[in-house]
Design brief:
This protein is an alpha/beta fold and 501 residues long. The chain contains 18 helices and 22 strands. The chain is globular, with a radius of gyration of 23 Å. The two termini are 38 Å apart. The chain binds adenosine-5'-triphosphate and magnesium ion.
């Protein structure tokens, strides 16, 4: 454990006594933070611990109630994002901040733009995005990008700012092992060049492998400060959660013989091609693959968000041909979307309303909404998810990123569906709450439901799924029974295909 940064070096950034309250919540209660050039500081804590709020203060997006910030030993007022940027602080926010109707290259240079030098900016965009090993057409509209691709663009946009301090607030939640590895290399290089980096992630392996020091926040205060080389995963969890965790994954349930979902020759253009698989009652089928391999696109066909141009789907023996998510739902297929902001939540409505909207039929009688029933059901699910019950009437926008995800989950749990599609179900969710979600998914399969789970987190897929499908170039490149002999390497080799380096 340590209390200061490298002794010989003066930190280039100091935050002292930072406080921030929101109505009913003390988000930060006097936090100190030191950061030196050429170091990567990990910032961890449970959902709602205050990580993003602290970084919003540092990037000028939020003004603190008390406390001071020193850059290069001088006090500085970061009263706006522009001011922070001009002071050399670049941030990749947890929630996507790209403008959906603009093209990739236009989004990249939004902040820094003087006059438009289109050809150069397009080229620069291609180069920066390429650094992360992803091929994205700079002319594409951002609304047509997958969440993972958007994350890549966000990272690239922050890299083109001439920054001394770089903040990354959960940048890898949708990235697969390969893109994350590239990012790690890139950060290593920036660090060597003297950049000071703050890295927030719920993927504790990344924190342990990538960072030099780790600061743990709990309930808006600093709980611990560690030199990364001196700690293990269990130390981090204990510090974040306050106790040891029993296990990472609940035991797998046994699937039944009845096939609930049967997909045959499913396709749409080049995104998804000739996909065939079955899911039995009580079974979890995990789907994984690199960014752009077609995982999310496949789920969109299954849930009716896009319409398949080829192939057939059957649900419990009946043909399924959804032309919208609503139609899919009517036939018993529901989907937990990947992008909670765009697809999932009504951010300005209360937590309770968000929970109730898709479940209205269950809580209304003669057209009247029975608030008591609604609240009672909500409270039950919320407590299962460990969502704070005193936040029921707060607007969804005021929840931390991970708690928004939990809310979405609670909402879908309440539905009566046979087939449940999960797209990155634990994206942005802390290690303790993750376990709760895994238990809930197990509960669903124990009830005989069929689950299809897309995840870029391989350990999650291997911990939860009965079978694993690996996608590459829009099609299923391999299928594995999830036995103890199966290794992450085997899966990654298939995912990389010939591109393996
Ligand atoms: N705009 C807001 N209005 C009201 N409360 C807020 C607002 N933003 C954050 N909060 C609250 O402040 C606390 C800290 O939230 P913050 O987003 O900083 O957490 P976090 O550590 O980033 O969590 P996560 O891991 O889920 O992203 C939470 O209780 C959250 O609900
Ligand atoms: Mg956050």
């Amino acid at each position: 454990m340590c209390k200061s940064t490298t002794d010989a070096q003066q930190p280039i950034l100091k935050m002292r006594g930072i406080c921030k309250a929101y109505p009913g919540v003390q988000a930060l209660g006097g936090v100190d933070l030191d950061l030196s050039s050429g170091e990567i500081l990990g910032l961890v804590g449970e959902n709602g611990a205050g990580k993003s709020t602290l970084m919003k203060v540092l990037s000028g997006a939020t003004y603190p109630d008390a406390g001071q910030i020193f850059l290069h030993q001088r006090p500085c007022e970061l009263e706006s994002p522009r001011r922070a940027r001009d002071s050399g602080i670049a941030i990749i926010h947890q929630e996507m901040s790209l403008i959906p109707t603009l093209r990739v290259w236009e989004n990249m240079f939004l902040a820094s733009r003087g006059w438009v030098r289109r050809a150069e900016e397009v080229e620069e965009t291609r180069k920066l995005v390429g650094l992360l090993g992803v091929d994205i057409d700079p002319h594409k509209l951002c609304r047509d990008l997958s969440v993972a691709e958007q994350q890549v663009v966000e990272i690239a946009a922050a890299l083109q700012i001439d920054a001394q301090v770089l903040i990354l607030d959960e940048p890898t939640t949708a990235l697969s092992a390969r893109e994350a590895e590239r990012l790690q290399k890139l950060l290593g290089k920036l660090k060597q060049d003297g950049m000071a980096i703050i890295y927030i992630s719920h993927r504790l392996e990344e924190i342990l492998e990538w960072t030099d020091r780790v600061q743990v926040l709990r309930d808006g205060c600093t709980e611990d400060m560690f030199h990364t080389s001196q700690i293990e995963r269990a130390d981090l969890i204990r510090s974040m959660v306050g106790e040891d965790l029993v296990g990472e994954f609940p035991p797998r349930s046994r699937s039944k013989e009845q096939v609930l979902l049967s997909v045959s020759g499913l396709g749409r253009g080049n995104d998804v091609r000739s996909v065939c698989f079955d899911v039995k009652a009580g079974e979890i089928v995990g789907i994984t693959g690199l960014v752009g391999s077609g995982r999310s696109e496949l789920l969109r066909l299954l849930c009716g968000a896009d319409v398949a141009t080829e192939g057939t789907m059957m649900i419990d023996g009946t043909a399924l041909r959804p032309r919208s998510p609503r139609e899919a739902l009517e036939q018993g297929v529901c989907m937990l979307p990947e992008d909670r902001k765009a697809d999932g939540l009504f951010l300005e409505r209360s937590v309770r309303e968000n929970f109730a909207v898709p479940n209205l039929h269950r809580f209304s009688r003669f057209g009247l909404i029975r608030e008591a029933a609604e609240s009672a059901a909500f409270r039950r699910y919320a407590s299962q998810m460990k969502l704070a019950s005193d936040r029921v009437e707060s607007r969804a926008v005021t929840l931390s990123g991970g708690n928004q995800q939990k809310l979405l989950f609670a909402r879908w749990l309440c539905r009566e569906c046979q087939v449940i599609l999960l797209d990155e179900p634990t994206r942005g969710i802390d290690v303790a709450a993750r376990y709760e979600i895994y238990q809930l998914v197990r509960m669903l399969t124990d009830e005989g439901k069929a689950v299809v789970m897309v995840s870029s987190d391989l350990s999650e897929v291997m911990g939860m799924a009965n079978r694993i499908l690996v996608m590459r170039h829009g099609t299923i490149a391999a299928e594995f029974e999830n036995q103890s002999s199966l290794s992450q390497r085997q899966i990654m080799d298939v995912a990389f295909g010939n591109e393996s380096s």
